[in-house]
Amino acid sequence: MHLSKIHPSKSRISSRADAVCAIILFVLTVTLYGRAVSFGFVNFDDGDYFFENSTVAQGLTFSSIAACFTQIVSGNWHPLTMLSHTLDAELFGIHPRGPHAVNVLIHALNASLLFVVLVKITARRWPASLCAAVFALHPLRVESVAWISERKDLLSGLLFLLTLTAYTRYIERPSAARYTHTAACLLLGLLSKPMLVTLPFLLVLIDFWPLNRVHSWSELRRSIVAKLPLFGIAFIFCCITIFAQQSGRSVASSELLPLIDRLGNAAVAATIYVHQLIWPQQLAPMYWHSSIPPGAGMPVSRILLASVTLLCVTSLAVIFRGRAPWLFVGWFWYLGMLVPVVGIVQVGWQAHADRYTYLPLIGVTLAISFGVDALRRRGKHWAICVHGIAGIAVVAISMLTYNQLGAWSSSLTLWKHALSVQPPNPLALNNYGAALTAEGRNDEAILAFQQAIELNPRFSNAMSNLARQHLARGDDQRAKRLLEQSLQIDARQPDAYTALGGIYLREGRPAGALLMYKQAVERWPDFADAHYNIAVTLAQQEMYQESLAYFRRVLELRPEDAEARSAMRTAEHLAQVLPTTGGDVPTTQAKP
After folding, report:
1. Predicted confidence (pLDDT) at residue 212 exceeds the cutoff of 80
2. Pair 375, 523 in one domain
3. Domain boundary among 361, 391, 406
4. What sign does the CA torsion over 345, 336, 233, 84 have?
5. Sign of dihedral through CA atoms 231, 277, 27, 41?
């Protein structure tokens, strides 16, 4: 690696200046995002990842740590992220303030570390500071920072930057220990979020620029061969991720979303992200895939325009790789890191997502920052113009970020915002209905659920939520029809089984109720309410001895559940006193 020699005294001055810049960036980031600490949970994966996750609720124990390495959450396996949530629960309890604060601090640390890494490998402070500032303060970062469930973005981002740091240290003085350190950082990053599978490719890119280690095909071969162990680690995690997502049935089938539609959406999404970087408006937590349901599709003209745009920029990056290497590296940084989340393997129903830009758009920002730096260095007047425009841009994106943060303060504000800036989609309407239900605005919630079902007649979750509204109004028959229809579409709804079991109990069909509760337990072994309902139903049928195992399981999952503990004591007493003849049925009722 070619690096200019710096006089020791100047190096010390430079180090102090870099440290001051990093600290200022950290403070600005914490100040801007600090309001997120007062936000609540949102009904968008936060339950799965945190406040309804029985593993996380245990805090740090041997069993919870082991469970973090075996648990697949929302179709993803990321044990280090789950460990961080479990640590949050240990330190702060099941409360949003602590996790939000941790998210803000990690993002601020990432911003400072990005600046330090860029200064180290490019020896250019001004463009490094601009790139890091845009990364830190841009509205596209709001989703990753203000959403507790996106801790995986922040952790993987931290370990991504630590991998770059470790790799540059290895290049300065190669050794087995430093290479192992690089591999270990990559491994930990993949354990946080498998999006880092293309990081070895990025290391090859930075060998070209700014490390200036690749000048010929033979040097390129050596660079790739040197990273084969890292590519091997990434390949293993690709296999694990595909297995986890298929196990969680999160991957959209080719019938629902054909490959040609995915490729078209990938091209459009890649251009949308760059547009959002430059003009961050109408940001939302969900951008519905235009090809769901099948037959809708995206206009061919839009796909062609996006494809031609990508091809033109890619061609320019290749043509000018000698004169503007930052454009070449930045653009392929962006494209390479976008590959795992661009939707070729479609997970979920989104066409694209703000959170997917957390690391990829650093590449585009890098290219822009070093491009305007080249203009800045043309002369005094250019420097004044560039500094002024850059300052205005940073202030503007900070103001937009502050406003965007407010949308994430609660579930209600989040989905109200989403519906105001994007065309209505089933998920946003369903989650808005759930938020309205939590506020007691049931008539509005019913309307939202009905609209979600109209947009997607096979939206099982909205059917279940609408069924609960009918249950609350005492309309068991309408609720039963919706629940049965919902479970025919998607059998992975434990709550729907318990609700249907409650209806069967009221109809005098305890055997049918038990079947529903047991199916819920089979699909979600840690579903405490289902275990409780089985125990109570068995006790009501005077099967006290059989009920005890289910009561004990409830208390394993919820040790503080006084109601379950009292009911179990009653069942234990009756099992001893009346083991065969029966007796008074406990008055405890199953939970809906």
Report:
1. yes
2. no
3. 406
4. negative
5. negative
Q: In this structure, are 440 and 400 located in the same domain?
A: no
Specify the 3-state DSSP secondary structure of 76: strand
3-state SS, 270-308, equals: HHHHHHHHHCCCCCCCCEECCCCCCCCCCCHHHHHHHHH
| Residue 360 sits in the same domain as residue 481 | no
Same domain, 192 and 240: yes
pLDDT in tens, 267-312: 999 999 999 999 999 999 988 876 555 445 678 889 999 999 999 9
pLDDT at 248 over 80: no
Domain enclosing residue 92, as ranges = 8-406
Q: What is the DSSP annotation of 10-33?
A: HHHHHHHHHHHHHHHHHHHHHHHH
Side chain identity at residue 563, one-letter code: E
Q: Does a structural domain hold residue 129?
A: yes
Task: Tell me: do 402 and 428 sit in the same domain.
Answer: no
Pick from 355, 400, 324, 275: nearest CA to 127: 324
CA 427 to CA 417: how far, in whole Å?
Answer: 13
pLDDT score recorded for residue 342 = 83
Omega before residue 294 within 30° of 0, cis: no
Do 488 and 363 fall into the same domain? no
Model confidence at 586: pLDDT above 60? no
Q: What is the C-alpha to C-alpha distance for residues 257 and 259, in angstroms, rounded to an integer?
A: 7
* Residue where a domain stops, chosen among 363, 387, 406: 406
- Run of H or E including 351: strand 350-352
Distance CA 401, CA 296 (A): 33
Predicted confidence band at 251 (pLDDT cuts at 50, 70, 90)? low
Cα dihedral sign for 483, 489, 495, 500?
Answer: positive
What pTM value is reported for the model? 0.88
Angle between helix axes 510-523 and 528-540 (nearest 10 degrees) is 160
Q: Domain for residue 529, yes or no? A: yes
In a domain, 248, yes or no: yes
pLDDT value at residue 588: 54
CB atoms near residue 169 (< 10 Å):
15
pLDDT 10s digits, 526-561? 888 899 999 989 988 888 888 888 998 988 888 888
What domain count does the chain have?
2
Residues 440 and 317 in one domain: no
Mean pLDDT to the nearest integer, 13-20? 81
Tens-digit pLDDT profile for residues 174-211: 999 999 999 999 999 999 999 999 999 999 999 999 99
Q: State the CATH number of the domain containing residue 460.
A: 1.25.40.10
